[in-house]
Design brief:
Blueprint lengths: L4 H17 L15 H17 L4 E7 L3 H7 L5 E6 L9 E2 L8 E10 L10 H7 E11 L10 H6 L4 E6 L15 E6 L2 E7 L7 H14 L9 E3 L7 E2 L5 E6 L4 E6 L1
Parallel strand pairs: 1-9, 3-12
Antiparallel strand pairs: 1-2, 4-5, 4-9, 4-10, 5-6, 7-8, 7-11, 11-12
The chain binds 2-oxoadipic acid and magnesium ion.
Length: 262
């Protein structure tokens, strides 16, 4: 760790206030170029602790920057992991208020729900599929607190990986029977298809993202408990949205999920 406790607490407060007040900030590595990976996750964890202290609950986990499309769009090369708080969850067909966000973008994702704990090291696609209860389509709404979405990996990890809202819906699918690599997705904005992809865009198989998360937690002596919802990461580039936009994700064999912005 390169940062002291007070600096971590101060950066967590700053980033969380930016989230809660919908205002942006320069990336934190500009002022703290020496911060390391442990500092980045410590700041994210301090944000989580602030939310828990206020009575929020964690309702899921997420992997991000798991597809080449996303890594290229953001100029980074490694997946990152974050948490989903209860108030991030928007009902299927629901409305997201843009006034609560800075510059939202949407991403088509495959969500996993576990039925058994997953503990690394050594998790792989096989262990993840064996521990998966079902998969379902998800739209993640990301909203980096960093000005113009310009960040590096440590800054984005500290900012809980741009998490802000998510919607799951459609039909649930049996991950043992589906081929998640060839599962196609179409993201529509106001009725027009704007992004397309297949599950293999995420690390060759979206379950790999879940295995990486389990292995990361395992290195810290933690596990993914049974019954956890996990977003496996955007399959395509993220698409900017604003007031008046309607977004639908159609996922092959898994129906569709929609959200509106006002
Ligand atoms: C970071 C979050 C990325 C994903 O699915 O790739 C993410 C960002 O691009 O702002 O959630
Ligand atoms: Mg995402």
């Amino acid at each position: 760790m390169a940062l002291d406790k007070n600096t971590i607490a101060r950066l967590a407060e700053h980033l969380e206030n930016c989230e809660l007040e919908a205002r942006d900030t320069p990336k934190i590595t500009d002022a703290h170029p020496d911060m390391d990976w442990d500092d980045a996750y410590a700041i994210q964890d301090a944000i989580l602790q602030r939310k828990l202290a206020r009575g929020a609950r964690v309702v899921g986990l997420k992997a991000g920057l798991t597809s080449h499309a996303k890594m290229k769009q953001m100029g980074v090369d490694t997946p990152v992991f974050g948490f989903l708080a209860d108030y991030f969850s928007v009902p299927e067909g629901g409305v997201v208020k843009c006034s609560e966000l800075i510059h939202p973008k949407v991403e088509p994702e495959i969500a996993f729900v576990t039925k058994a704990p997953l503990k690394g090291p050594g998790c792989h696609v096989g262990t993840v599929l064996a521990a998966t209860d079902f998969v379902l389509p998800a739209i993640e709404i990301i909203d980096s607190r960093y000005r113009d979405f310009k960040f590096d990996l440590k800054s984005v990890i500290a900012d809980n990986c741009s998490s802000s809202r998510f919607v799951v819906g459609g039909a649930i699918g049996d991950a043992r029977k589906l081929d998640l690599r060839t599962l196609g997705v179409v993201l529509e904005k106001n009725g027009e298809p704007v992004a397309f992809g297949a599950g293999a865009a995420v690390l060759g198989h979206p379950a790999t993202a879940i295995a990486m998360l389990a292995n990361r937690l395992g290195a810290r002596g933690e596990e993914i408990p049974a019954g956890t919802l996990i977003l496996s990461g955007g399959i395509t580039e993220a698409v900017a949205v604003g007031p008046g936009d309607a977004i639908t994700l159609r996922a092959q064999g898994l129906g569709s999920v929609s959200v509106r912005f006002e």
